[in-house]
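User: Hi! I'm working on a homework problem where we have to compare a predicted structure to a textbook description. Could you give me the structure for the chain below?
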Amino acid sequence: MTQSKELRTLTIKSFHMNDVKFSDKTCMDNGILYIKESIEGLSEHDPYIKEVKVQIIKKNERDRFVNSIMDFIPIATKVLGKIGEGITHTLTGTLVMLTGVDEDGIQVAEFGSSEGILENQIVSNMAGTPSDEDIIIHVDAILKSGMGTNREAIIHVHKMCDFFIQEIREKLKKVNGRKCDERHDFTDKTHPNRKKVLIVKQVAGQGAMYDTWTLPKEPGGVEGGVSIIDMFNVPIILSPNQYRDGALRAMH
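Assistant: Happy to help. Predicted C-alpha cells:
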C-alpha cells in the first residue's frame, strides 16, 4: 500500500491585540497596535481618490453610519515562504474595514450598496466578518466624481488600503514567533489509495468592484495578485493551504 505523502506545511502564528491606538509611528507593544492616522503617499493629484479617512471603531462604537463596505481584511503577513506554505503571522482582535463613496454621494457598489448603521449592516462572528469583540480599523475612501463605479478606481482604492496595511505587516514580520498567542500547523497531504476530492468554489468575476484577486504576495493582499476577470474567469486550482492562507481576496 502506497503511503501518504506530505506536500507542504503551513504554520500560522497569531498575536492578539487588546487595543488599537493612533500614533506617529506604526508598531506593536504589549498587546497594543499603534497605527498612523493618515495614509502616506496620497496626493491632491491622485486621479481617483479625493480623500481617505482612518478611524478606530471599538466594540461598543458600532452604532454609527458607514459608507458602503468594500471588504473586511485580516492583517496577516508571510514571514517565510509563499502563500500556502512556510510561516504566516496574523493579528487577532482587530481587522481592517474598507468603505467607499464618491464625492457626489454615490456609494461604491455593484448590485446594491451596504451603507448604513454598521451594527445593522453586518452579521458578526461569521467567517469573513469581525467578531463582537474585534476592534475595527476603518479606512474610508472618498472617490472623485464619477469614480464610484470605475473599475480602475476601485482597484486603486484596494491598492491604497493594501499599502496602508503593508506598513503594519512589515512590523508583524519582525515579531518574535515564539511569543505568539496561538500556533496552528496545517499539512497538505496526498492519499494515493483514497478518492480524489475537489471542491469547486465559484467566485465573483464580473466587473468594477465585483471582482476577486488571487495569489497575492501577502495573505488577503493585493500586490502581486491577479484578477479573476483579467484571467478571463478560467478555473484555477488551489491547494487547501493556499486557500487557508489567504490566496483569494474579494474585491467588492
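For your comparison, note the following. The helical segments are 118-121, 151-173, 240-244. Residues 11-185 form one domain. Good luck with the assignment!
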